[in-house]
Each structure stands twice: as C-alpha cells, then as structure tokens.
Design brief:
alpha+beta
C-alpha cells in the first residue's frame, strides 16, 4: 500500500500545502504516523480517529503543536492506497459541515 495526496483539478495538493505551512514538529508527527500506517499498523486515539460512521475507510489524524491542533483526513481505499484528502487547523470541537462536505466530495472523486 502507498500514500497518495489528493490533487485538485489544477494539480494542487491541499494537504501538502497545509504541511508546508506548519511547524517542523507537526510535520514530523505526520510523517511518523504515515510511516506506521505503511507498516500496516492500525492507529487509534489519540493519534487517529476512525470516522467510518461518516464514511467507511475515512480516518482523521489528530496532531498538535504550540500553534494548536491540526486535523488531517485520510481515506483508506483497499488495494489502492491511503489518500490524504484534507487538512485544517482545528478551532471548534466539531468538524465544520463545510469541511466535511469537501472531504466527502474528494472521496467520491478518487
């Protein structure tokens, strides 16, 4: 299995752009979590939350640094890979509807 970053129609990677703007520590935490996923480990709380109640295969990486909490959403598509779909700085307890709609739209596109 390999990791794929969702690309917009213009070829941009929203998750990569997000990672470019965060601290080195948060970026390292992201790559450590991805490394564990690639080794076949199932991540659980507090690092990752399974969101299969919203969409089977959807998960959220829960990372934080001094600047706050970040959420990176990924989709595990059997036999195809792990898709990094969306990321944002968390400011509210719940996932905003606008963000969730975008995540679900991207899942349909892959």
């Amino acid at each position: 299995m390999n990791v794929k970053f969702y690309l917009t129609r213009s070829g941009r990677s929203p998750v990569q752009e997000f990672l470019d703007g965060v601290s080195q520590g948060l970026r390292q935490d992201f790559f450590d979590a991805v490394s564990q996923l690639l080794q076949g480990r199932n991540l659980s709380m507090p690092i990752s939350r399974n969101l299969s109640s919203i969409c089977p295969g959807l998960h959220e990486l829960r990372l934080k640094d001094r600047a706050g909490q970040a959420r990176i959403f990924y989709f595990m598509k059997k036999q195809d890979g792990i898709y990094m779909l969306h990321a944002f700085q968390k400011k509210m307890p719940e996932i905003p509807q606008k963000e969730m709609a975008l995540i679900l739209k991207r899942i349909k596109e892959i």
